[in-house]
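thought: user wants a sequence for this fold. calling inverse folding tool.
action: design(structure=
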């Protein structure tokens, strides 16, 4: 569950809160640096990647770009990019929801399981984010590669109500 910091109430989240977006949706939801977003999300609609938004009450709370890798012997879902909406960052003056990033990662874990990718998730994290993913239960392999393996992955998405 997300925590609504305005009311201090928990907001239940399930898979229906995650919606696959199209490139045109970036304009509709004002996903652009001029509105406080840090990354160029238009580049994420290529090479087999899918972009999903986390919505609460029809408002976008964060984005995640994922790509399945169904190779025999080692199947996984890769997180290419993850960003919480500007109003949900830790340094936002009026942060609306807490734990959006965790729920985006939990979504990727559940989605990996639904795609029969063994609930394995891989992320090549920015150096300053490796600790975040390790804090969620991931294992660091080298300076940037973090893998969330099935037991941890399934626990994460179940803890988030997915």
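)
observation: tool returned 162 residues.
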């Amino acid at each position: 569950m997300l925590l609504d910091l305005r009311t201090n109430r928990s907001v239940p989240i399930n898979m229906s809160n995650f919606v696959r977006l199209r490139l045109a949706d970036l304009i509709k939801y004002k996903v652009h640096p001029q509105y406080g977003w840090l990354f160029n999300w238009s580049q994420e609609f290529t090479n087999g990647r899918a972009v999903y938004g986390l919505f609460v009450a029809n408002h976008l709370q964060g984005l995640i770009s994922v790509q399945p890798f169904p190779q025999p012997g080692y199947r996984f879902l890769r997180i290419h990019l993850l960003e919480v909406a500007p109003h949900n960052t830790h340094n936002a003056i009026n942060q609306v929801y807490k734990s959006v990033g965790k729920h985006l990662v939990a979504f990727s874990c559940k989605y990996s399981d639904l795609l029969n990718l063994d609930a394995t998730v891989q992320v090549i994290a920015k150096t300053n984010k490796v600790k975040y993913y390790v804090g969620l239960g991931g294992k660091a392999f080298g300076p940037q590669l973090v893998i969330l393996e099935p037991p941890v992955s399934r626990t994460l998405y179940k803890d988030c109500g997915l």
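thought: summarizing for user.
answer: Here is the designed sequence. The beta strands are 2-4, 9-11, 18-20, 50-56, 59-71, 74-84, 97-98, 121-124, 139-141, 145-148.
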